[in-house]
Amino acid sequence: MATRAIDFAALNDGEPPHLAAARAQAYATPLETLDLLDTDLWTGDTHWPWFERLRDESPIHYHAGGGFGPYWSVTRYADIMAVDTDHVRFSSDAHLGGITAKDMDADFILPMFIAMDPPKHDVQRKAVSPIVSPGNLAFLEQLIRERAQAIFDNLPVGETFDWVDRVSIELTTQMLATLFDFPWEDRRLLTYWSDKATADETVPGNPTKQEREAIMLECLVYFTKLWNERVNAPEPGNDLVSMLAHNPATRNMIPMEYLGNLILLIVGGNDTTRNSITGGLQFMMANPSEWAKLKANPALVDSAVSEIIRYQTPLAHMRRTALTDVEMGGKTIRKGDRVVMWYVSGNRDERAIPEPNRFWIDRPRVRQHLSFGFGIHRCVGNRLAELQLKIVWQEILKRYPEGIEIMGPPTRVASAFVKGYSSLPVRIPA
Amino acid sequence: MARITYIAADGAARTIDVDDGVSLMEAAVANGVPGIDGDCGGNCACATCHVHVAPEWLAAAGARSEMEAAMLEFADGVTADSRLACQIAASPALDGMVVRTPASQH
Ligand code: HEM
Ligand code: FES
Question: In angstroms, how far is CA A94 from the centroid of its own chain?
Answer without folding.
Answer: 19
